[in-house]
Queue: 2 jobs
Job 1
Amino acid sequence: MDNGRKTVVVTGFGPFGHHTVNASWVAVKELEQLGLGPDVDLHVHEVPVEYQTVQSLVPSLWEQYHPQLVVHVGVSGAATAITLEKCGRNRGYKRLDNSSFCPGTHCCVEGGADCIDSVIDMETVCKRVNTSGLDVSVTVSKDAGRYLCDYIYYLSLHLSSGCSAFVHVPPLEQPYSGEELGHALRAILLEMLEQLGQDRGTNHYEHRH
């Protein structure tokens, strides 16, 4: 991290099912317009809703950028608040993706831990954003849903020793606009970066590649 600069990678998902416009990618594009300040190099990527693409793409993002933080964003039709996911799970992937594929073993990483927690204290991030004056509601969850959202999160957590995050957003206008979601993401990521910065010098920054 030269001169205190940080590299952050943020992904959103492409269309799937009835989500012909995926709110997660709209929110990430809004975040890209806003940026994270002059000291943060922000890279965004749209991810197809496909297990095999995720399996190859996520390691390549870590390898290419060596980021301090990767945040994956996905849409949840059931969500009415912006949801910070605390952990990713390795098993239970039985739902077919956009290519009508699911892992034959129904798991993400053979021999991996059943569950990996993020090193980020999501409760603290949630509390700070909820009291920051932004007109959005943020909550915390321990179940990212055993589909591509959970799958990409677990894989990133596995590759980064927990230095990843996942944010679920509601569908557009239910109740937030893309612009509101973008501003919320920006506030959430800045809190996460501040928290990680306070932990600098610990092994949170010693990623395995």
Job 2
Amino acid sequence: MGGISLQSVERSVAQTPLIGQILARLADAERIVIRAIKAHLAEIDPPDDEPPDVATDESPATPTDVLRELLDRSMYSRPDDSRNALYLSLLSDLLPDEARILAALSDGSTYPVIDIAEPLLGTSTVLVLTNASTVGRAAGVSLPHHTPLYVSRLVLAGLAVIGPEGGSAMYDDYEMLLTDAAVNTAIAKARRGIRSARVIRRTVRISELGQELWEAAK
């Protein structure tokens, strides 16, 4: 008795429309199930190059969150904790050259400061240069031409204060400062025709807060 060949079975199926339709529907159903399984697996473990659409639990902090945290911390902070937080914040904002200037001022020394302004017109004053000082070179800063900026930042941070013109003992210091290249450039820029630039003499010294910070950190 001869065996039944595959070709004969295929011919029989093809000649039986009902069986062919059933097999076709089963194949379609199988493909649908496979697609559904793949989609489900992709949702559970998405590919690395396709980040999930669902947002992570850790969202960026908002200004409200930061303020609330600061207020909560302030309720339980001791004076020493608050003082240390202030000192650390001030120190973190200092540039290395500014730290050298603070060190130069820490012994209570006073240094000359010069502002250069345009000739006075009415009640207005237009400053061309502010807080030029010899304290930068005295402190040995790396960028002495940026001393006006360093002094301004220290004053703004409350670590140094600007005072009135120094006495006769500072005469030579002011004269030396007037030979500075940045000061001479500002004088030339501020000049208006025959009217010379205004030279405003003042002084800089360490503030009470600056002294506290120095004593706490040295």
